[in-house]
Amino acid sequence: MILLVREDREYLREPGETLETDLGVLEIPEDPAPGETLETHLGTEFTVRELRGPDFVRHFERSGAPMLPRDIGLVIGHTGVGAGDRVLDAGTGTGVLAAYLGRLGAEVLTYEQDSEAAAIARENMALAEVEDTVDVRENNVLEATEEQPAGTGGVETDASDPNRRSGGPIADDSGTDNNGSEDGSAEGRETPGDDAAESGGNETFDLLTLDTADAPAAIERAPELLVPGGFCAVYSPFVESTREVVETARAAGLAVDTYETIQRELDIDERGTRPTTAGVGHTGFLAICRFE
């Protein structure tokens, strides 16, 4: 997918498609290059742009209000998450945070309880070209991690394609896993949890991200889920829930810092420069916890 941009207009299209607007008809070539200028039959020019992180917020199909770049930037900056890190994410929603982390090179296992939202998130991961590094599963993260034996809680891979992650649940009610194994084991599949299984330890993560109402319950289990020095980032829309997260984190022995996300844009014109009077600068509260 590419973006066709002209001034304040953006159109998301596949190469080879036709764009029809009041500005004319544009036959998109099969291999347009980022930065290339294309013209409609009326001579109107559009610029080809490659999709990047901020574009996801505008062009992902939404299943709810997504995290905004201002919040995601704080998560990345305060946790140092990067390529090769393993992330356990709860409350996928639209999947903007998961997509950002996947494009950084992290391996993301994300849980969403709503089946429709999970399906939308998988489509969005394909749009962001991170479907091989972001595994969207339909389940409650607490139930999913509790039902896993030690060392088998990692991201599963499809036996028919070891380079593609499975999007199904860890196990169904019949006890058959999503690759057809009758005992739900990971035998015959190489997973990021195999090393932990061989050593007899529990599967752990470098970062735990939570955007769910039951975040405090997940925080209680953070010492089991995180590597030493690992982080947990909790996004909360209300002060009350943030306080509960902080109290739970402290009781669990985690170091915790809290922030309110406020960002103001500037209006700059010939008269001068001042903060904009439009829009809401506040988005939410962020608790950053660390397992020492």
Describe the 3D structure.
This protein has 292 residues and is an alpha/beta fold. The protein folds into 2 domains: 2-50, Vcp-like ATPase, Chain A, domain 2 (Roll); 54-157 and 191-290, 3-Layer(aba) Sandwich (Rossmann fold). 26% of the residues lie in helices and 31% in strands. The protein contains 9 helices and 17 strands. The protein has a 7-stranded mixed sheet with strand order 9-8-7-12-13-17-14, sandwiched between helices. A 4-stranded antiparallel sheet has the order 2-1-6-5, with no helix packed on it. Strand 5 (37-39) and strand 6 (45-49) form a beta hairpin.
- On the 0-100 scale, what is the average pLDDT? 83
Broad shape: globular
Straight-line distance between termini: 42 Å
Class based on secondary structure composition and strand pairing:
alpha/beta
Quickly name the level 1 CATH class of the largest domain. Answer: Alpha Beta
Task: State the helicity in percent bands.
Answer: 25-40%
